[in-house]
Amino acid sequence: MSAFGVRNDVTIQELAWEAVRESLDDSGLEQKDIELSVVGTVNTRGYELMPAVVVNEYSGLTGRGPVRVEAACATGSAALWAAYSAVASGQVDIAIAIGVEKMNEVDTATSLAVGGRAGNYLWEFHMYGTTFPAYYAFYATAHMQKFGTTEEQMAMVAVKNHRYASRNPKAHFQFEVTLEEVLKSRPIAWPLKLLDCSPISDGAAAAVLASEDVARKITDTPVWIEAIGYSSDTSNFTRRPHYLGLEATRKAAEMAYRRAGVEPRQVEVAEVHDCFTIAEIMAYEDLGWVEKGKGGIFIAEGQSELGGKVSVNLSGGLKAKGHPLGATGLAQIYELVKQLREERERGRQAPLRNYIALSHNVGGTGHYAYVTILRR
Amino acid sequence: MSAFGVRNDVTIQELAWEAVRESLDDSGLEQKDIELSVVGTVNTRGYELMPAVVVNEYSGLTGRGPVRVEAACATGSAALWAAYSAVASGQVDIAIAIGVEKMNEVDTATSLAVGGRAGNYLWEFHMYGTTFPAYYAFYATAHMQKFGTTEEQMAMVAVKNHRYASRNPKAHFQFEVTLEEVLKSRPIAWPLKLLDCSPISDGAAAAVLASEDVARKITDTPVWIEAIGYSSDTSNFTRRPHYLGLEATRKAAEMAYRRAGVEPRQVEVAEVHDCFTIAEIMAYEDLGWVEKGKGGIFIAEGQSELGGKVSVNLSGGLKAKGHPLGATGLAQIYELVKQLREERERGRQAPLRNYIALSHNVGGTGHYAYVTILRR
After folding, report:
1. Shortest Cα–Cα distance, B12 to chain A (Å)
2. What is the pTM of this model?
């Protein structure tokens, strides 16, 4: 994983290489060992018509990269899934999934417009001018109205995730924030304030995948993909049956738990999609760790802190580690692999007994969802 | 497959549905039977941030579509490959690959600019203004200089493919052209003239894939994917070792033939990537049907005509059937499935003995290549 942040110091291909290089070093492999490369990028920058080609070429993987995948903010997970499918099908033994995004090269107005277009363009953005924070504000107000979730509880998510990001040398925001600072930050789309929102980040992340036999040969510390669950949902925000959680998350989680034979309560460490603080609160519920409506209480009780019922976003999450769309899903995998190997810094290494981890990556406002279960 | 052409009568999702509907009708399946949908689109139109979501929703496949894939002009084949990998891995039994593109909603200047960006943006388009036909003109002139290939031989490809397109009710150009008309058409990038070039088309195509057991249950006329080969190449046109053929095609073909256990001479019917007439001539060579340099003679001798050594582009090819980027690879599969089932119109049904077919789909100027081998 590259350092996340404003990375005007590198091109998209240089940024990707930072992640690929670490992946190769970590796995002890060379480019010639990689049979397949899947690149995930939304390509918000947009000037390269074929971003996967330039990324693969710069990383020395020319000839191995037949495809780019995209699933909005869940693009990194989609890349993992496509590479996983190729390995699991027996077509190749060793693959790499690469996620990369440069988001700071477009201006803020463009970013907002693109974010707004995460809904149905003709019906929502074009007619109502809905921006991305506004979509999540619908969820936040509905959750507050129905369940009594408070602005303070949402702010606690930011405080927690900034605390862990302050201990993560690759995070975009390596500083802590107080509850008061979050609550007093300027409104973006009420009740979401500036410090409830994830930033506009550049970054890259990658993961090497291998078939079971080959994995055992190349490493003493394999981390197994037990299952990848996925789902998608309507592009019309107005057609969602409610605004209290994400159906796509619920369905992807159900598929992942079923395929893996794992119960929600067995998950010890997780990276969840906290693009806004309310999203993390809904994720606790949709992933089955607490009943619907009690997510606010879950964070208030410290159940998602390090050593709680499930240690959530010890990387700092999208909220504070940053959220470069194509990289996010693979950065979650990177974090969880390090967690399962117990290689994290003091103050953000989860205590483990079952060695079961979960990543949760959403595209758009629940248009896509991936849930991946890992085990060491 | 939808009708190809200028399809300003439909939105991208309506266009895709034309192909999905026919796929469902043909397979006797309903949407509820489809476990996974992979959408391929380059999204040249660009206003939908998540084109796969709107396409799946309109086709009644909400929840089943976790990803969009892109591989420039080979995007349709990339979608087939991703769906194939998921089925072959055992994750799902029934999947659909959907390819769709609307190209006529951007103006010609934009199309040319986008086409030019098929090379390396910073080094080629930005510095030299290279457009897409110019790239293939490099190949054409090199082939002429080295092997004595002639403008007449290239024109013969256009005459042949227009002849078959005139018999294909879904083709963009359902008219014949004479050798003289091709040779006298206006120069675009010498030696390529207007009638050497594929058009700017809108269209969609789709394919239903099933695991072996399930396929036998749902149809009496299954067509088997024997293998999919793929490769990619440098984004820097100037780094190609020569301009006499596409290394990506050669490598993808080698992988496909090896995995399928098929020899080039066993292929009886093929759809090859004739974005420009020279591309079809190079494909004869790179796919192993004739030695390098003899592609011009191959067409002149009628070896690629209906009933020749291999019947090539009986659909009309990209050249005359049309080339909507995301749809092209799947439209090739559509054509070959119909050919292998011997369901084509009089005057364009290949005579078959081995029932082995091949599709060849290139992205950019050899940046990507897919070769798929089908057998009935």
Report:
1. 13
2. 0.95
